[in-house]
Amino acid sequence: MKTTEGINSCLMLAVNLNLPVDLGSLFDSEDVTELELDSHVTILYAKDKTIEKDELVKDIGLILDPERFAFLVDPEHEYSVFDMCELSVFENDDDFLVLKLKDSWYKTYCTMINKALTTKYDVSSDFSRYTPHITLAKLVKGSGKKYLGSEKIDLVLKDSLISFEDLLVSYGAEGEEDRKQYYLTHNSCIQRYFRLDNLRKAENELK
Question: Can you list the positions of beta strands (E) in 36-179?
């Protein structure tokens, strides 16, 4: 690991959030600051630290046995969104509409990895506890709560599926759009590349 001021490491569990409609259509345009099309669960965000991808692979292999590791990144397991998550809002300088992971093996494994790596690499956090979640959108402050009672979002998410695909790590500055990203596993990386490309094209067509 290297101390790299301004360059952060972000370990993520890539997610396939399979919605029957475009994500942007769920929100009023004046409320949306940014849609999160690259769905993922952040496992560890290490400020000012470059944790090499090979180190992370070894570390995770020590935290999870091979059977648990394989389960965590098996895209063949597909679930109803509300079986795995609950809709919530995180309020900060902006509002974030998120899907918080309910109690499950996925939540347990992500928490185990977060705790072990936080300790090993002396990672500090702005938050008092780790809450694994999938961000749907960054919204204008004060607008998030209305979507918790949205019948439209509820109906869409009830008809949506979720699967957990791969582990990946990115390196870059806070808020940087073109962060360097590397896959640690390769179960669905090609499918994910084309899926994200199609999602971004669809979003641009709606603008």
Answer: 40-46, 49-50, 78-80, 85-91, 95-101, 133-139, 161-172
Tokens representing residue 83 in the block: 């079986």
- Give me the residue spans of the domains in the chain: 2-206
Q: 73 Cβ partners below 8 Å, 6+ apart?
A: 13, 164, 165, 166, 167, 185, 187
Please report the pLDDT score of residue 127 as a whole number: 79
Is residue 7 a contact partner of residue 173, using CB atoms and an 8 Å limit?
Answer: yes
Write the burial class of residue 82 (CB in 10 Å: 0-12 exposed, 13-18 middle, 19+ buried): middle
Q: What is the largest CA-CA distance in the chain?
A: 47
CB within 8 Å of 16: residues ≥ 6 apart:
39, 75, 162, 163, 164, 165, 188, 192, 195
Which DSSP letter does residue 146 get? G
Is the pTM above the cut of 0.70?
yes
Assigned CATH topology for domain 2-206: Cyclic Phosphodiesterase; Chain: A, (3.90.1140)
Report the chain (207 residues): mean pLDDT per 10 consecutive residues. 82 97 94 95 95 96 96 97 98 95 98 97 88 97 94 96 97 82 95 91 74
Cβ-contact 1, 50 below 8 angstroms: yes
Read off the pLDDT of residues 142-184 as tens digits, 9 standing for 90 and up. 999 999 989 999 999 999 999 999 999 999 988 777 789 999 9
d(CA 121, CA 9): 11
Q: What is the pLDDT of residue 206?
A: 64
